[in-house]
Amino acid sequence: MLDDTGRRLGRARLGDGMAGMTRLHEMIAEHLDDADVDPETGMFAAGAVVVGIETDRGPWVAALVAAGYEVFAINPLSAARYRERHSTSGAKSDPGDAHVLAEIVRLDRAHHRPVAGDSAQVEGLKMIARTHQSLVWDRTRHAQRLRQALREYFPAALDVITAGRLELTDPDALELIERAGDPDRAARLSRSKIAAILKRARRRDVEARAELIQTALRAPALRQPAALESAYAVVAGTQIRLLAGIIAQLPPLEAVLGEGFGRHPDAEIYTSQPGLGAILGARVLAEFGDDPHRYRDAKARKNYAGTSPITRASGRRTVVLARYARNKRLGDAVHQWAFYALTNSPGARAYYDQLRARKVGHHAALRQLGNRLVGILHGCLKTRTTYDETTAWAHRFTAAA
Predict the structure, then answer these.
(1) Splitting the chain (401 residues) into consecutive groups of 10 residues, what average pLDDT does each group show?
(2) Could you write out the DSSP letters of every residue in 43-68?
(3) What does the radius of gyration of the chain's CA atoms come to, in whole angstroms?
(4) CB 281 within 8 A of CB 333
(5) First to last CA, the chain
(6) Cβ contact 172:201 at 8 Å
(7) Are 154 and 178 in contact, with CB atoms under 8 Å apart?
(8) Distance (Å, rounded) from C-alpha 378 to C-alpha 269?
(9) Domain residue ranges of the chain, discontinuous segments joined by +
(10) DSSP assignment, residue 295?
(11) Which residues are within 8 A (CB) of 90 and not within 5 positions of it... i.e. 6 or more apart?
């Protein structure tokens, strides 16, 4: 604990529970007087108690905000850079880090963002959205591991996926690969069993597909030694069961996510944006939050989304780069949003085509389109209006004409 001149008022190691929080309140109360309390609201006056902490979530953060303290979540990377300002020896300790955090919020809090005042509703939505997004990433990770294992010992299984016009993560494709197991078992798999798997998935042209799949399974191929094939089959089976478990959990999460998103007052504005549906819209809302005072302007929102570029200028050399230090979950959602907007907004498509005509790469063009879409969303939220295609893009193409 420091006062506004940097003089140490106290130091303690506090526990995570109620006892630790109670002790913190007692330590702070010893150094406050009536002038630090707003007589109208009964809350602490602005800047009376400022807290620096290296996280923006958890019971402690919620309790600090509820107590009326001004809480700043300091990025650990920023705290590490500030630590070098106090000591160049490389020494690190918890008391030293606490002192650095206190100095940051005492001297430089104007350059840091306080913890957002998001509603409990959107905080809960964020937890569900992040869990869903993590499972989607896990599905991709395990699918890639399964694909690599099959490529190593059973490439015919991948040919089966192509022949049957299936995706590797489709339930019937996973069941088919698990039943086939290895080249020997695959060669014995009957057409009737293959057809039954396709029928359970309600596929069309079952007989024709079953014939193509059986032909692919029985085609001559290079083989690994039997012991190695057996080991690979165990690995592939493990990945298949993991994938099946992940895939089974996605629909219930999506239902909860869509229901929670639909109850939020900003849902109509988000879903009016081209390319945003219930699931992707819930992700974007959850990561941006619903605190109306969190973003000073559209540029601040773009910076947080990571869509705006950064400039590095030194002497006569100036380089404009993509912003990779960002909220990666939000960045992924905005990138998908920009991609889906191409087929839902003529203005977004025209803007993307203009960038591509200037030899801008696909992903770079999507980043710039996402930057524009984030600005449009900020305007809609600020004015409490839904998306309008003409308002969003007319000025740009009128100026170009």
Answers:
(1) 89 88 88 75 75 87 85 86 77 86 88 84 93 95 95 90 89 92 89 92 90 89 89 94 95 95 95 95 94 89 89 84 84 95 94 94 94 95 94 72 48
(2) SBPTTSSEEEES-S-SHHHHHHHHTT
(3) 28
(4) no
(5) 61
(6) yes
(7) no
(8) 10
(9) 18-115, 122-260, 267-400
(10) -
(11) none
AA identity, residue 388: D
Element (H, E) at 321: strand 317-321
Say if strands 310-314 and 317-321 run parallel, antiparallel, or are unpaired.
antiparallel
Asked if 213 contacts 160 with a C-beta cutoff of 8 angstroms, the reply is yes
| pLDDT (0 to 100) of residue 399 | 54
Give the tokens for residue 21: 């929080």
Query: What are the C-alpha distances in Å from 211 to residues 43, 158, 164, 205, 214?
Result: 74, 16, 9, 10, 5
Helix pair 226-263, 278-288: axis angle to 10 deg: 70
Instruction: Write out the two tokens for 355.
Output: 């960038």
d(CA 196, CA 45): 70
d(CA 381, CA 177): 48
What are the start-end ranges of the E strands in 62-139?
70-73
Query: Can you read off the two tokens belonging to residue 62?
Result: 């919620």
User: What's the Cα-to-Cα distance from 369 to each of 58, 157, 238, 286, 355, rounded to whole Å?
Assistant: 34, 39, 40, 21, 9
Residue type at position 104 = I
Find where tokens 């969303």 sit: 377
